[in-house]
Amino acid sequence: MRVDAKDMGADLKQVLITKEEIDAKLAELAAKIDAEYAGKDLLIVGVLKGAVMVMADLARALSTPVTMDWMAVSSYGAGTQSSGVVRILKDLDTDIKGKHVLIVEDIIDSGLTLSWLINNLGSREPASLKVCTLLRKPDAAKVAIDVEWVGFDIPNEFVVGYGLDYAEKYRNLPFVGTLAPHVYGG
Ligand SMILES: O=P(O)(O)OC[C@H]1O[C@H](OP(=O)(O)OP(=O)(O)O)[C@H](O)[C@@H]1O
Ligand code: HPA
């Protein structure tokens, strides 16, 4: 296995999705999002920190002119299981009332974060509120959520890379992969 980011290769079990596959998928999603929002003003909302890479690459793949804002919420802390308690660490800078809003996520795992976000942002009366996520774990869902654009459905395993962390590490890997058991202390 070839790993681009130095010193992280030994911690990885498997590359699940390559950089090339991510790029191709984002181009595909961007074309669909462009079609949906043609002629409209679109605000894309990235969910920090995980969605930084998806936001940066998706935004550049879109032809639609967008404005960007960020929200930081956390439900995972340093572990691999959602606590289910979502905390706002940073709220939006903008009022979204009457705007077309697209939430951009890196992953939907239990769905608890997104379900909370949809309720929270939905109560601010946007003109529309839709979701694009790079990854989704169908077997981990604790709540059913209607998501317009999904990059990849993946198995119920903890993944890192392309924005996703384990204890804040591995976010800068250019691909999505799984971790070797020794990293968890196994
Ligand atoms: O569907 P769920 O089980 O709720 O998990 C998904 C959320 O978990 C991650 O965020 P995290 O709280 O780890 O913060 P981070 O983005 O700063 O790493 C990820 O970025 C999603 O926002
Ligand atoms: O599989 C995951 N990896 C990293 N962060 C996450 N947050 C929810 N699920 C995950």
TrEMBL record:
GO terms for cellular component: cytosol. Residues 21-166 form the Phosphoribosyltransferase domain. It is found in: Cytoplasm. GO terms for molecular function: guanine phosphoribosyltransferase activity; hypoxanthine phosphoribosyltransferase activity; magnesium ion binding; nucleotide binding. The keyword Zinc does not apply. Keywords: Cytoplasm, Glycosyltransferase, Magnesium, Metal-binding, Nucleotide-binding, Purine salvage, Transferase. Belongs to the purine/pyrimidine phosphoribosyltransferase family. PANTHER family: HYPOXANTHINE PHOSPHORIBOSYLTRANSFERASE (PTHR43340:SF1), HYPOXANTHINE-GUANINE PHOSPHORIBOSYLTRANSFERASE (PTHR43340). This is Hypoxanthine phosphoribosyltransferase. It comes from Streptomyces curacoi.
